Amino acid sequence: MEYSLSQLLYKNTGLYEKSGFFINRCFCVKPMSRIAYSKILRFLEARLTPGGALGLHLTAGVALLLAAVSVFAEIAEDVGEQDTIWHIDHMVSQWFYEHAFEPLTSFMLAITHLHSTIGVSCMGVVLAIWFWRKQAPYWLLALLISLPGGMLMNVLLKHTYQRQRPVFDEPLLTLATYSFPSGHTAGATLFYGLLASYIVVVSSSWRLRLWAMCGAALMVGLVALSRIYLGVHFLSDTLAAVAGSAAWLAVCITSISSLRRRRAAREDE
After folding, report:
1. Which of 89, 128, 138, 247 could be joined to 234 by an S-S link, Cβ 3.0–4.6 Å?
2. Contacts of 229 (CB under 8 A, 6+ apart)
3. Cis amide linkage into residue 103, ω under 30° from 0
4. How confident is the model at residue 6 (pLDDT cuts 50, 70, 90)?
5. What DSSP line would sit under 219-244, residue for residue?
């Protein structure tokens, strides 16, 4: 006879009695009833099951969301209080300004222009056509929500924090908009993050999955580096953009995945 995770824990490990004793001793409450404890185990089992509508994907998505929001909030707080990251920002920006040279400057300009709002939008259209031709409507929906929504969120954050851009005597590039967080880095995180997620989900090759994740991280890092190198963003601007966009991407992908799994479960009934 096969048992579920909760049944095995209940029958074979004595976990109920141990946890009940621990709760009673530490929190001074009555031992948990067998029914209540069984419900908790079933809840945990459902959250860690890969195939459920609200299973492991939801748990991973919520964990990523909380971690990303926490990182963003910490960076924003340090920038606002001119803490350690604020001093590191100016040191890094000044170093890149003093060590800029050709042809690296032209290469960084090409990278940054490719990932402008227009550039990322064009890449998004190409990816949308790919999803449509591959008959991947849920991934198409995730793209249509995550990319425009994330870029709009970034604009709202810029106007919320209103941080000025780095200032140099002879800047390589000059922009009049706010600095925090980086819009180019946010767009790259949303686009390459979604593309990597798609490849990880649909591919059966672990090598391809690894290449997709490393490639996405490399491109996001390159875009972030180009913005710092050109003197239009601080280091913390790019880090906050990655964190904020990762949080939004986690919300979008997790929500669409849950929608797909719920509909599939209804069709199977």
Report:
1. 89
2. 96, 100, 104, 105, 108, 172
3. yes
4. very low
5. HHHHHHHHHHHTTSS-HHHHHHHHHH
